[in-house]
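Changelog note: in this version the structure field was regenerated for every chain. One regenerated record is shown below for reference.
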Amino acid sequence: MDNRVCVPGTSLPVEPPPRRSRRWPRRVLATALAGGVATGAVLTLLTEEQPHGAGRPPAAGPPAQAQAQAAQALKAVTWGLPAALPQLGALIGQQEQRVREQPKDARAWAVLGAAYVARARRTADPADYPRAEQALQTSLRVRAAQNTEALDGLTALALARRDFPAAKRYGEQALKAAPKRWTAYPPLIDAYTGLGDYKNARATLDKLLGLRTGAAARPAVMARASAVYRDRGWREDAVAQLTDAASAAGTPAEQAAYLTGLGQLAWERGDLQDALRHFEAAARLDPDQGAALTGRGRVLAALGRTTEAYAAYRAALAGHPSPQDACELGELYEAHGMAAQAREQYDRVKELVRRRMAAGVDEELLIGQFEADHGDPEEAVERLQAEWERQPGIEVADALGWALHRAGDDEEALTYATTATDTTKGGGVRSALYAFHRGLIELELDEQASARRHLQQALRFNPYFSPLQVPVAEEALRALGDVPDEPPPSA
């Protein structure tokens, strides 16, 4: 941005804190369906016209084809695996008809709710989340005992809404009800990770790996192991697990999801060609894989193929209108001096966040990140401090540290930035952005050796990590000058 000033003691441009302006609603937690609401009220919800927005799948086709697609999606939803959008559409249509005919069928309600969650994740349409909650709570009311399908669905819904305490609660109930069932473990690992409980996340993974799972389940187990290894900084192990998962995947949608993950791992280590190869392969297998399209745009921008990058982002947002992706596109426009286009995307971020919050999604992390970089750092601090109290994961630690830095409190900022980057404090992931944030905070505190080390680390991890921040990191290192002769500290 152009309205930047220099902070005394550094040569780095830092934006002045803007005038405070409350532009976001307060966090709206998902509210469980009241116990007194009758099943008929939920059936009424299903008969209401559902909007066919961006990413909404077309009709499944002839009855035989729809039945085959529904059967494929049923297996994927039951196991928590990726499913193609047409298959999910067929399954939802089938289950909606089933619960109208058999409103006391607890399993049908649970499958319907889980399918709504899966579709919402694929389309980024939050309207499916309230439907999912009502279907899953109805399932529990119809059959409370040993209803692991409903508990699994509620865990998935809580994860999709970034409500990690609720995900932990439902996930632990599901695991207690059926401790030998492998599908209970992966969502619980995600819940522990979101809460910053890495010890329990790793212990739960160990238990999952100790189970005897069939060949069809092993790709999903390997993918979950890859995510935990990535968070520990074990990049090679993460890649190996996810490569094997992609090779053994049972469906194109599942394989596309794992290839997208491999693309993201390649991006995080700055390997542009490998990342592009995986993202494009994923998009060929599953054209509705929004994360692959966004990843492709990210890589094309880093390769200097900017016009193609804009098109890739716009294609991703057309089918998967994610506020994170809109923010990325806005920052790409801003980095290339296209202020009007950047503002349009930032306005889109705000609208998408409002819609998601109205559907019960916790967007405090994204709001905090957005406000720290593009709005009011003090509001970012306020929101992220509350989020840290509720679910203290590494992402929140990094975001809060950066927001505190942007608000001028670098002493406290360093505490959180250290948590996000220090393996002894849980921050094992090799994130260029986290290292960059810590480096700039240390620079403001005149800890030049440590600042230099972390800024160099950021560019070594991924020299393309942000179109806006990479030039800042490079400028900071130039200002710091040559590396001194003494060896760097071991910490």
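Spot check on this record: The chain has a mean pLDDT of 89. The beta strands are 5-6, 13-14.
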